[in-house]
Each structure stands twice: as C-alpha cells, then as structure tokens.
Amino acid sequence: MEDMSHKSARLDLDELESVFAAMELTNPESAKGRLLTMAAHLFKVRGFDRTTVRDLASAVGIQSGSIFHHFKNKDEILEAVMRDAIVYNTRLMIEGVKASTTLKEQLLGLIRCELESINGVTGEAMNVLVFEWRNLPEEKQRGILELRQYYEDLWLSALESAVEQGMVQGDPFVIRRLLAGSLSWSSTWYRIDGSLSLEHLAEQALLLILH
Amino acid sequence: MEDMSHKSARLDLDELESVFAAMELTNPESAKGRLLTMAAHLFKVRGFDRTTVRDLASAVGIQSGSIFHHFKNKDEILEAVMRDAIVYNTRLMIEGVKASTTLKEQLLGLIRCELESINGVTGEAMNVLVFEWRNLPEEKQRGILELRQYYEDLWLSALESAVEQGMVQGDPFVIRRLLAGSLSWSSTWYRIDGSLSLEHLAEQALLLILH
DNA sequence: GTCTATAGAAGGATAGAC
DNA sequence: GTCTATCCTTCTATAGAC
C-alpha cells in the first residue's frame, strides 16, 4: 500500500492521465497545438524573452492580437509548453520502466528516455522546460514542479535500489543531480544526425553511474 | 615544440596574461569593477533580458545614463562579465594543473576547479557565461570561445591520457561534455553552505568518470 | 564620472468588428 | 477564431550640462 500522506503534494496516475488528455503540444490539428509547437521552437531558439508575441503570431500566420484568444497572456504559453512537455515524457518514462526487467535495463531505459525527451521530437519543449525555468512566474513553477516530482521519484527509487545492490556508489540524490546535468546539457552539443547514436550516448552515460 | 598552425584560433599564455591584467570583475575599487560584479549578480538572478540598465544603475547607486560612460551598450556589459569570468578561472585551472603530480590528482583538480568556479566567488559570473550564452551577439561569442578553448584543451589532454592509461572508458570528447553538464548544472541545486562539501562533491564527480 | 531630460523604438495586452 | 487599431508601458541609448 502506498503512503498517501503526501497526496496533496504528489500526483497520482489518474491525474497524470487527465492532464495528458488535455495536452495540445503535439496536435497539429488545433490552432492551439500549432501555436504551442511553434512557441516551443521559438522559445528554444531565441529564448522566451526575445520571442515576441508578434514573432509567434507571424510564425503561425496570424496577427498578434489573435494569440490572446488562446492564452490569457504570454506567461501562459510558456506554462503550457512546459506542462505538455513534462506530461508527455513522464508517460513515456513510466512505460519504459514497466517494460524493463532488470535494474540495469531500467537505468538504461531511464537514461535513454531522458536523452530522447531532450534531443528527440519533444526536444524543443523539453529544452524550454529546462532552460527557461526562471522565466516562469513562481506560482506557476509550483504546479510544474508537482508534475516533475512524479518522474523524479521514478529516478530516485531506481537509483536507491542500484546503490543497495552495489551497482552504483554514492548518494542517490547527488548522483541523480549530476546525471540530470549531463543529460540535459546534451542538447547543447549532441546532434541527433551526427555520428554518435543516441543509443551509444545512453550507454556512455550509463557508464558514468555504474561501478 | 608546440604546433603553431592554429595560432590565430588559439590563445597563448602571454595573451591570456594581458587579458587577465585588464580584468575588472573582481576589483571593487573601480566603478567599472563594481558595475561588473553587480551585473554578474543581476544577470544570474534575473537573467540578462530581465535586467534593465536602470536596475543595474540603481543597484550601484548611479543613474541609468551613466552606465554608458563605461560601456558602449548593454551587450558589452555581458561580454565583459563573461570574458573576465573565463580568464580568471582559466588562470586558476592552469595553476591547479601545474600543482598536481599524478593524473588522478590532476583530474580531481580540474573538477574541483570547475566546481569552485561555478559555485564559489566567481559563481555568478560563471553562471552568466554558461546560461546567458545565447544572449551574447554572435560576433562576440567567437572571441569568448577562443578564450574558452584554452581550458577545454587542458581538459581534453588530461582525459586523453586517462583513457590511454585505462583509468577512464570512452571517447574523451563525449566524457568531457557529459561531465561539463554535470558540473555546470551543479549551480542549480548545490548550496555551498549546505551539508555536502565541495570537496565531497568533487570526489563524487570524479567517480563518474573513473573505472 | 555622474546628472537630467528625453528621443525613439518595441513590446504586451485590449476592444470591438467581422 | 481572426483581424484591425491602438493604448500604455518599458526599455536602450543619446545629448549636453555640471
């Protein structure tokens, strides 16, 4: 039986599913979906502050005033990009963990998943989540952090087991933070169409924590 | 004898020294030094775009127009913070490498030095270098990259030796990038006044690459 | 080296028509 | 759901006095 004492601060799977159902980021059918995809792109390439609502509007072929039919203000666009990015990738991560049998496989799966999230199709949105964090107003940060906790817990429990079994040395929290840095940072130098495959990179990253 | 064919793209020690002599960041005696220290602080806390010249001016107790007596424009302030940060820390790193006798000691020294640079007294300026990079106009980026190459070369040659000796497994370039991510990212979660000492963190980071 | 005053441009957001 | 028109604020940068 799970400990429910933290329920208000955590997210259960049902909540995650309902947020997932409302995700628009990857939906090119809706105007809002196209806006979010383009916003992720522009926020990643130019940064949030240097992307104007006029830029975003003209990139999707509408006028700047029309943006505010879909979002109350510019901050809400940022929030939506981040929320959708994290929900989408948390779901992939849960599936990856379920699919793995050994602990080593699970760790590699988590690494692969995180590398995929930051360098693959949702890479721009994930980059925004990681590198534009400071631009999200504090009250909105809290909501996203709650979502993030779900997949950080996946990581921590995997690392705790690995330390218990002697596969990994050190404090799980510190290892997770060091590894999170390595993986997030990969988007600044890794090229998905280069000679290094994402799978090889994942294996090299796994080597960092295994002993 | 060193290969001089890349001279134009590299930096020699004399040049480094002359740039170092012109460094103002850590000089509280000059108005420019105070401006740079405060700029590093504000750029780190709020980000470059969200820091106005008015903010900066009032933080050092002058009027916004007076800023432009010291710097031609706002971008030049950012450039100066970055240049001084990198020159200051490259020098520390060179000294650290010189002082170490074994290769393992050298690697630990490089890690310690990088952690110190991003979490210690020059931490705010180094954070600006790492996380506000995109805000520096491209032509200015080139000059800073040239400076940065000096200490990246220190890293690469140490890692190449370590791989040759079997201390470290994998491609030195990839290992360096993964490690650089870990170390830079530490400024987002590590607290220098917390229970984890910088020395312990350095040792944990060394564990990442050693096999 | 700092001040005052202000030019000039750009950005977020709103209102109301269609 | 999008357009037009525009308000209002904020920001960088300049000019010239002290």
Q: Would you kindly provide a written description of the structure presented here, covering whatever features stand out?
A:
Chain A has 211 residues and is mostly helical. Chain A contains ten helices and no strands. The longest helix of chain A has 27 residues, at 138-164. The model of chain A is unreliable at 4-8 (pLDDT under 50). The interface between A and B is medium-sized, with 33 and 33 residues. Chain B binds a DNA duplex (18 and 18 nucleotides) through helix 4.
Topology, please?
The structure is a homodimer of 211-residue chains.
Chain A (H helix, E strand, L loop, with lengths): L12 H9 L9 H16 L6 H8 L3 H7 L3 H26 L3 H17 L3 H9 L6 H27 L7 H14 L12 H12 L2
Helix pairs in contact in A: 2-3, 2-5, 2-7, 3-4, 5-6, 5-7, 5-8, 6-7, 6-8, 6-10, 8-9
The structure holds a DNA duplex (18 and 18 nucleotides).
Task: Give a concise summary.
The structure is a homodimer of 211-residue chains. Chain A is mainly α and 211 residues long. The first copy, chain A, contains ten helices and no strands.
Strand content of chain A: under 5%
Relative helix content of chain A: 55-70%
Please count the helical segments of chain A. Answer: 10
Most extensive chain contact?
A-B, 33 and 33 residues
- CATH topology name of chain A, in short, is Tetracycline Repressor, domain 2
What oligomeric arrangement do these chains adopt?
Answer: homodimer
In angstroms, what separates the terminal alpha carbons of chain A?
Answer: 33 Å
What is the CATH homology-level superfamily of chain A? Tetracycline Repressor, domain 2
What are the segments of chain A in which pLDDT stays under 50 over at least 5 consecutive residues? 4-8
**Count the strands of chain A?**
0
Number of domains of chain A: 1
Identify the overall geometry of chain A: globular
CATH class of chain A: Mainly Alpha
Could you tell me the mean pLDDT of chain A?
93
- Biggest pleated sheet of chain A: none
Structural class of chain A: mainly alpha
CATH architecture of chain A: Orthogonal Bundle
Query: What is the string of SSEs of chain A from the N terminus onward?
Result: HHHHHHHHHH
Radius of gyration from the alpha-carbon trace of chain A, in angstroms: 18 Å
